[in-house]
Amino acid sequence: MNGCPFCPPPRHRTIRRGLFVTTLCSDPRATDNHLLIVPNRHVVRFDQLNWLERLAISREQRRLIRIMLFSLSAPSWEAISGYDLWQKFEPTEPDGPVKVSHFHWHLIPRRKNDELAQLSRADFTRLSEEELQILLARYRPGWRRA
Questions:
Q1: CA distances (Å), origin 51, targets 55, 57, 94, 114, 137
Q2: What's the helix, strand, coil split of the chain in %, to 5?
Q3: Which residues contact 35 (CB under 8 A, 6 or more apart)?
Q4: DSSP state at residue 48
Q5: Tell me, what DSSP letter sits at residue 11?
Q6: Which is more confident, 94 or 24?
Q7: Which CATH superfamily is domain 11-145 in?
Q8: CA-to-CA distance for 120 and 4, rounded, in angstroms?
Q9: Is residue 80 within 8 Å of residue 109, measured between CB atoms?
Q10: When comparing pLDDT for 121 and 125, which is higher?
Q11: Is the per-residue pLDDT at 120 higher than 80?
Q12: Given this model, what pLDDT does residue 94 score?
């Protein structure tokens, strides 16, 4: 895809390239060891992936999580206590240094009381009963159709 920084994936940031998925070092990154799991075929949304691509992404996520939790928690590192695994779809935002219109997952190691934890604690509020009922009414019927 013209202008897509993942088409093809940059070799200098590639950790592993498989038949359906490539793992990259993220740049820019949210924290040390921030990785990107990118399908080799250009798609914009998760629902555009075929089942082989979804399976390959899932296996790559599992492999990387194990490496992150069991290999990177060496004495020379500050202990990795968990990870964030996420992706976002923001079609209204223009592409730029931190936004790419090529579906991908972020895998970010987490450490106790790291900067991301401190930032995220301030952002969450509890759902009111009314908000909960609105969400349930919105999503439950669609679940049955999907």
A1: 6, 10, 28, 35, 29
A2: 35, 20, 45
A3: 15, 23, 24, 25, 26, 64, 106, 107, 108
A4: G
A5: G
A6: 24
A7: HIT-like (3.30.428.10)
A8: 30
A9: yes
A10: 125
A11: no
A12: 74
Q: Is the pLDDT at 126 greater than 80, yes or no?
A: no
Spatial strand order in the sheet of 21-25: 14-17, 21-25, 35-39, 105-110, 82-86
Cα-to-chain-centroid distance, residue 70:
20
Cα 8 to Cα 128: distance, rounded to the nearest angstrom = 46
Structure tokens given for 132: 């909960």
**Cβ atoms of residues 86 and 120 within 8 Å:** no
In the block, residue with structure tokens 């952002």: 123
Helices (H), the chain: 51-66, 115-121, 129-145
Q: Show the tokens assigned to 44.
A: 């914009």
Output the six-digit token pair for 65.
């999580």
Please say whether the beta carbons of 15 and 29 come within 8 A.
no
Q: Which amino acid is at 79?
A: A
pLDDT one-digit tens code per residue, 34-87:
899 999 999 999 999 999 999 999 999 999 998 888 776 555 456 777 888 988
pTM summary value: 0.78
Q: What is the DSSP string of 108-143?
A: EEE-TT-HHHHHHHTT--PPPHHHHHHHHHHHHHHH
